[in-house]
Amino acid sequence: MPRLCAFCGCNNRVGCGLSFFAFPKDSTRRRKWLLNLMRADLSPDMTREESDRAGYVVCEQHFRPKDINSKGRRKRLAPEAVPILLHTIKEEQRDLEMPSTDVHAPVPLQDTPPYEQVVAMFNKLLAEKDEKIKDLKSSLQRERARMRLMKFRMNSKIRELKRKLEQQQNSSDDQGDQLTAASDCLPQAAKEFFDKQIAMAKVRKHGQRYDKKQKDMAIQLYKQSPSCYSELQKMFQLPSSTTLRRHQVVSQEASPSEEEDREPLGWPASQKDTPADPERGEEEKLADVAGWVVQKVAQDPEVSACTKCESLLVETNDTEHNYHTRMEKDAVSAVKKSTTSARLLHPSEAFKECISKCDSVIQKIPPNAMAPKKLKAYLRASGAFSELHRIHPAHSKAIERVAVNKYVMCRVVAELKETAQNRKRTHEKKSAACQELNVSTLEVNQD
């Protein structure tokens, strides 16, 4: 069956002396061909297989001469060739019938729309394309304007950041020059101290390491005033009290001496300057130590952490008797202002009774048998504060803290006694060993 040209209005058949070209395999080119054929019955999405089965071809009269390559045996189309309406069909040629000897059966003609309808459809497609092109151009102009505005803003921001960076660099250089000039005016020791502080600030807290010189200086500061040393720790990178104690123990083991054995960290200056008296007994020495503990126990961070009180109330050099007397006077003045004081026990008697009960309770407890926190609950359960608590609750709590402090002092004194006894036993063993060695030496010499 001879095939006709698929272009709208063209009746050229295969075998009339013209070259015919099949639809391209590329989907983009094939879509352009189908749109330019001006056939409403042909879908632009038709595949190559469907066009081959239907026998759709386009004659050479719908291509430009430059799009056709005639050098070879067969004519070939250029890669960009697209069919267009080139030739005009005369009115009288439409009615001619071409006899054909090759056709032995009736050939059904394809239904094609009228020419005017095809032209109107083509004009509609062109109008739609023009409208799309206008929309794309307007959106492109808006996008370009937005990009220009964004570029201007980004350049302005970059210039502002560069200006700020330059100012910061100049300020940093000025501060560095000032710091260098100030460090040159400092003494060598102060300069080394601040250099080490700067180096410590760059290291995390648990990665800080102090040399022996720094630890020795910190120990001297701590001995002068533990509270002042705590304030200095807030401003500078200084070793903790635990590190100082560990360093002192290591130093004592490395170079033991009698003076270092007598002087633990924070030992009072009066004890340090007092010469050793061989006539004084061990109990008198422990009594001096206990008195010092009563005065300085509030400054000991370990005791403070153990009792968990805001203060240990032993912050002055007052004796226990004067402290109790002052508390008794405060209780008397507070009770006199109370409207129910006439019906209660006399405050001085209640105060003395409370103190005696606390002392009796504490004496029954071994020094290391109970933690201070449990001691408070034990004293409350014993009813030692019941009468005084009704008169003035604040004073009963104060006496409770005093009782805990006394118990803590007893614990410290007991530990000191145990240490002294251990040292005494060690000294006796060493003396006995020396005597045995001397006896053995004499026997060897006599032999």
From TrEMBL:
<keyword id="KW-0131">Cell cycle</keyword>
<feature type="domain" description="THAP-type">
    <location>
        <begin position="1"/>
        <end position="86"/>
    </location>
</feature>
<keyword id="KW-0862">Zinc</keyword>
<comment type="similarity">
    <text>Belongs to the THAP1 family.</text>
</comment>
<dbReference type="InterPro" id="IPR021896">
    <property type="entry name" value="THAP9-like_HTH"/>
</dbReference>
<dbReference type="InterPro" id="IPR038441">
    <property type="entry name" value="THAP_Znf_sf"/>
</dbReference>
<dbReference type="InterPro" id="IPR006612">
    <property type="entry name" value="THAP_Znf"/>
</dbReference>
<keyword id="KW-0804">Transcription</keyword>
<dbReference type="Pfam" id="PF05485">
    <property type="entry name" value="THAP"/>
</dbReference>
<protein>
    <recommendedName>
        <fullName>THAP domain-containing protein 1</fullName>
    </recommendedName>
</protein>
<feature type="compositionally biased region" description="Polar residues">
    <location>
        <begin position="243"/>
        <end position="255"/>
    </location>
</feature>
<dbReference type="Pfam" id="PF12017">
    <property type="entry name" value="Tnp_P_element"/>
</dbReference>
<dbReference type="GO" id="GO:0008270">
    <property type="term" value="F:zinc ion binding"/>
</dbReference>
<dbReference type="GO" id="GO:0043565">
    <property type="term" value="F:sequence-specific DNA binding"/>
</dbReference>
<comment type="function">
    <text>DNA-binding transcription regulator that regulates endothelial cell proliferation and G1/S cell-cycle progression. Specifically binds the 5'-[AT]NTNN[GT]GGCA[AGT]-3' core DNA sequence and acts by modulating expression of pRB-E2F cell-cycle target genes.</text>
</comment>
<keyword id="KW-0539">Nucleus</keyword>
<keyword id="KW-0175">Coiled coil</keyword>
<keyword id="KW-0863">Zinc-finger</keyword>
<keyword id="KW-0479">Metal-binding</keyword>
<dbReference type="GO" id="GO:0001935">
    <property type="term" value="P:endothelial cell proliferation"/>
</dbReference>
<feature type="region of interest" description="Disordered">
    <location>
        <begin position="243"/>
        <end position="285"/>
    </location>
</feature>
<dbReference type="InterPro" id="IPR026516">
    <property type="entry name" value="THAP1/10"/>
</dbReference>
<keyword id="KW-0805">Transcription regulation</keyword>
<keyword id="KW-0238">DNA-binding</keyword>
<feature type="coiled-coil region">
    <location>
        <begin position="126"/>
        <end position="178"/>
    </location>
</feature>
<feature type="compositionally biased region" description="Basic and acidic residues">
    <location>
        <begin position="274"/>
        <end position="285"/>
    </location>
</feature>
<dbReference type="GO" id="GO:0005654">
    <property type="term" value="C:nucleoplasm"/>
</dbReference>
<dbReference type="GO" id="GO:0003700">
    <property type="term" value="F:DNA-binding transcription factor activity"/>
</dbReference>
